[in-house]
Design goal:
The chain contains 17 helices and 14 strands. The protein is an alpha/beta fold. Strands 2-3-4-1-5 form a five-stranded parallel sheet, with helices on both faces. Strands 10-11-12-14-13 form a five-stranded mixed sheet. It has a four-stranded mixed sheet with strand order 7-6-8-9. A hairpin with a 2-residue loop joins strand 13 and strand 14. Helix 10 runs antiparallel to helix 11. The relative contact order is 0.10.
């Protein structure tokens, strides 16, 4: 998608959003290989030598900004040949504001901005860049991206072609399941994947995960919230422990009231650390028009971080490569939700929904409900089950939907009116439908 943006005729400044250490900077640096010149400015690093923030604070025109940057960095700013990268731009709001004017004054220049706490800055600039900025969301690696990163290009390619009508062989299916277990345990944080791909041990991967968590916790001090960092930490741990169920505020913190916990949740969402899954009645289009925010689940951004917050040892989990690990602690439900989010085009807002029977005493629930083109599709996550659950059948009968999906460790197959998708193909859900 970045190459498409680079070659676009009607190109706007690009804004990359995503949690810290999601790979934004590394991705832009890789893209810079396509240019003759590259200027990278990190606004979090207060460089006294360049004092580059002052350039933007002077409210210069984009062309004047480019002239000064060329002098400071001794690098030409040439349209079509230079990539200008403004990293951690939330630490310089004047630079943030200038992006809109680059589109009007220098549309031929390639400009990318990125930051890990951009949602907080956007709250202060509510009308920022309307129609003049192209925004993309970045997540940790998906399973397909992980396969390519660790050199499994053939399996990654096959993953794009398999379907209920064209399943892979039993031997290839077994390979996918083995690799899936590794991915679901270690997760898709770029540094962790790079450590694994570079031959690092699982202990090294665990250390990389711990460092990523410490970085997230370090950012808590920067949130513009009226809640202390210790409360944010406490609520985040509770989100992890409550994965797979409706979030219960009374279990979230011993020291905070409902409004304080709600504020913590809001801050964690804005930071991109957790993602909501909202109840929908799923009676029509669009799904988001029939949601009930009082009933929400939350997903943490990565399965590896999930394990480490639970203080689970990666080496012990991976020693057996036992498929039964997938059944524990709602791990499969977390994985599928994250894969569904990552499958949505990066320039479109993504929102996950689930369904539960609202009748008193009922426990019927469908883990995800998605909208694909003109279809609403219920998605049941049952990694070890051999039969279709009653909840999805009741949902389909009650809503009049004739098509559903079950995610499990089995290969593609049909179960009554529900198609089985293997967990490793969760990102493909909705690509094929009757």
């Amino acid at each position: 998608m970045l190459l498409e943006w680079k070659n676009s005729v009607n190109r706007k400044p690009l804004l990359l959003q995503g949690v810290r250490q999601a790979g934004k900077t590394a991705t832009v640096r890789e893209l810079s290989r396509q240019f003759d010149y590259f200027i990278e400015i990190n606004f979090e690093d207060n460089d006294c030598k360049t004092n580059v923030k002052q350039i933007f604070k002077r409210r210069l025109t984009p062309r004047q900004i480019c002239s000064e940057l060329a002098l400071i960095y001794k690098t030409p700013v040439a349209p079509g040949r230079t990539l200008l990268f403004l990293d951690e731009i939330q630490f310089c709001l004047p630079a943030f504001s200038s992006l809109s004017y680059f589109y009007e004054d220098c549309p031929e220049l390639h400009v990318i901005a990125a930051g890990s706490l951009l949602s907080f800055a956007l709250q202060e600039l509510p009308l920022f860049g309307v129609g003049r900025i192209h925004s993309l969301s970045m997540y940790p690696f998906s399973f397909g991206e992980y396969l390519r990163a660790v050199g499994m290009n053939r399996l990654a390619g096959i993953l794009q072609d398999i379907s209920p009508e064209n399943p892979c062989s039993a031997a290839v299916h077994a390979q996918y399941v083995r690799l899936l277990i590794r991915f679901m345990i270690a997760g898709g944080m770029p540094e962790v994947v790079a450590t694994h791909a570079g031959g690092g041990s699982w202990a090294d991967c665990q250390l990389a995960l711990d460092n990523a968590i410490y970085a997230l916790y370090g950012d808590f001090q920067k949130y513009k919230a009226r809640v202390p960092a210790t409360r944010l930490h406490e609520v985040l741990v509770s989100v992890v422990h409550q994965t797979g169920g409706k979030f219960n505020y009374s279990k979230a913190s011993r020291m905070s009231n409902h409004s304080q916990i709600k504020e913590c949740i809001k801050q964690l969402e804005l930071a991109g650390i957790i993602y909501p899954v909202t109840h929908t009645s799923a009676s029509g289009f669009p799904l988001t028009a029939e949601t009930n925010a009082k009933f929400r689940k939350y997903l943490i951004l990565d399965t590896g971080i999930y394990h480490r917050i639970l203080r689970q040892d990666l080496s012990q989990l991976l020693a057996s490569e036992n498929p039964e690990l997938v059944n524990k602690n709602s791990l499969a439900e977390l994985f599928v939700g994250l894969e569904l989010l990552k499958a949505v085009p990066a320039d479109r807002p993504a929102q996950l929904c689930y369904w539960q029977n609202e009748k008193p005493g009922s426990s019927d629930e469908v883990e995800y409900v998605i909208q694909r083109q003109t279809r609403i599709i219920p998605v049941e996550v049952k990694p070890g089950a051999k039969n279709v659950g009653q909840s999805i059948l009741q949902f389909m009968t009650g809503k009049g939907y004739a098509y559903g999906i079950r995610c499990s460790l089995e290969n593609f197959g049909d179960h009554l009116y529900v198609k089985n998708y293997p967990l490793y193909a969760a990102a493909r859900i909705g690509d094929h439908h009757q």
